[in-house]
From TrEMBL, chains A, B:
PANTHER family named in the record: OS10G0403700 PROTEIN, PTHR46368
Origin species: Acorus calamus
Name of the protein described by the UniProt record: Oxidoreductase
Coiled-coil regions listed in the entry: none
Native organism taxonomy: Eukaryota, Viridiplantae, Streptophyta, Embryophyta, Tracheophyta
Top-level division of the source organism's lineage: Eukaryota
């Protein structure tokens, strides 16, 4: 793990969603970030969250009984916003207007038009924006990208197939925010593909020369190391009774779990803006907007009885 | 391996297709089968096939310069027919009419109507029919079925995803029978799903409680043992930074490669008919017909611009 830096990025969290526990620990683990405040609509809830997450929160962290107080705290550089999607425009824009850099939980917006309001506020305020998609920050993903870009080992991309399902109980189907149209109106579309099957997270990418597979691409099976397999120029033996070469396993270790890698990268960029007056890095909001355009297109396709929908970037 | 039986099933082969080499070895390995004749349109080709496959063929095997001579040989119990699909009706019916039990290479027919002509001839002649789909005979498949039927470990079936692609060269795209409409008119539909990607053979079956995966379901990576994985009631750890349980690996060993298991099972059934006067086993032609109905439906869907097509069994 890298040594802690002198002036870590000071985080506030808006809301005590379940996933905030994970990001709280990630802020704790990232060497360039520190959690300074937690805001909730109820100060008791904020205090309980802090108490429940004690191993990952310093005793100096402040509890606020509103989101506004976090945004008004001059000691906060950046906010992590895990509120329900329908509240994102209001609070993300408010954060940007208060000069807080923004790590926004996914799905980031209900539609591209909403996202554009958020991104425009960030642009106007010189705010670093990043959505809270974690797996792309795992060093495994960089290794996968390297191999997928190898014309010899992978070749030309031919198909991508991914699955994300999990099985939920009655309580989830009645009470989770993802089944509440007024909270997370995108439902399964904004998160998992399906709620009714055993937990499965698969990604298979097939090219002319290679086949890359992993079965835990969003959440790695284990924190410290993650693997994927790559078959290259696969073929059968002479009698087609077996394969002449087997897919190779690639194991990528990491000192930080992927969500801490994310916080670390976000904080690094925020540090550039805060300490060096750099412009915010546009790579991340650009990726977020592409993701949103795909979600919008899938939604439009569903509304049009699964007709193909063209995506115009 | 089981001991060779006293009166093995005596096989003839119609045609010297590449895949006949594999089945020749399978007949050699199966304890209840023996190859007695190879017929080709050219006797030189039949002789060359016998010479080239010497390690798996007894010196007493006969070479015939026509398919008819194989069918007229009273010393032959059963024929394996690896001819191009467009020739199946003619030669499969001829074999049935000559009282030869029939192991027919896949795809078995161009359409269900053609297949029904073949199956009617088998029915009329008391002929045992089996298509030459090999992987279903691997003991791994039986183990998979057992787990897929387990309501606790797998639950209710929710989705099946399978892939079979391989990458071909220019010679294949110009000369293989699968690109010749007059030979194998079903093309990729009757065999692989796609010719333009790295060799990939995946099967993922997801149920309410379980996820079963294998990456070599048609041709196992290795002959002697094959594996698959099953995740059951998979879930994350408390902070969703990893999984609380990992998929388990199941390894199934086999004395006979799957194609020899197939010959063994076919020969066992033929033996019942030949030696005990039993009726042919209807399970296998029933499965073949279901497969054909699916192929017909996919073809109809393609012809109708990918509209859904209902399958009536």
């Amino acid at each position: 793990m890298a040594a802690a830096i002198d002036k870590p990025i000071r985080f506030g969290i808006l809301g005590c969603a379940d996933i905030a526990r994970k990001v709280t620990r990630a802020i704790h683990l990232a060497p360039n970030a520190v959690l300074c405040a937690v805001g909730s609509r109820s100060i008791d809830k904020a205090r309980r969250f802090i108490a429940d997450n004690a191993p990952h929160i310093s005793t100096e962290v402040k509890a606020y009984g509103s989101y506004e107080e976090v945004l008004d705290d001059a000691g906060i550089d950046a906010v992590y916003v895990p509120l329900p999607t329908s509240l994102h425009v209001r609070w993300a824009v408010a954060a940007a207007e208060k000069g807080k850099h923004l790590l926004l939980e996914k799905p980031t917006a209900l539609c591209a038009a909403d996202l554009d309001v958020i991104l425009a506020a960030c642009e106007a305020g010189g705010i670093q924006f990043m959505d809270s998609t974690m797996w792309v920050h795992h060093p495994r993903t960089a290794k996968m990208r390297e191999l997928l870009c190898d014309p010899d080992r992978f070749g030309q991309l031919k198909s991508i197939h991914s699955v994300f399902t999990f099985c939920v109980d009655t309580d989830f189907l009645q009470n989770d925010i993802r089944v509440k149209p007024d909270l997370d109106a995108l439902g399964v579309l904004g998160d998992e593909g399906c709620f009714l099957s055993n937990l499965t997270i698969d990604l298979t990418v097939i090219g002319t020369n290679g086949t890359l597979r992993l079965h835990d691409f969003i959440i790695p099976f284990e924190e410290g190391s993650a693997k994927f397999s790559l078959g290259t120029k696969s073929w059968f033996n002479d009698l087609v009774t077996g394969w002449s070469s087997l897919p190779s396993e690639h194991v990528v270790t990491t000192d930080l779990p992927q969500e801490a890698c994310m916080v670390n990268e976000f904080s690094r960029l925020v540090g550039h803006v805060r300490d060096s007056g750099s412009a915010p890095e546009k790579k991340w909001p650009t990726i977020t907007r592409k993701t949103q355009l795909v979600i919008d297109a899938v939604k439009a396709s569903i509304d049009r009885d699964y007709e193909p929908v063209e995506i115009v970037v």
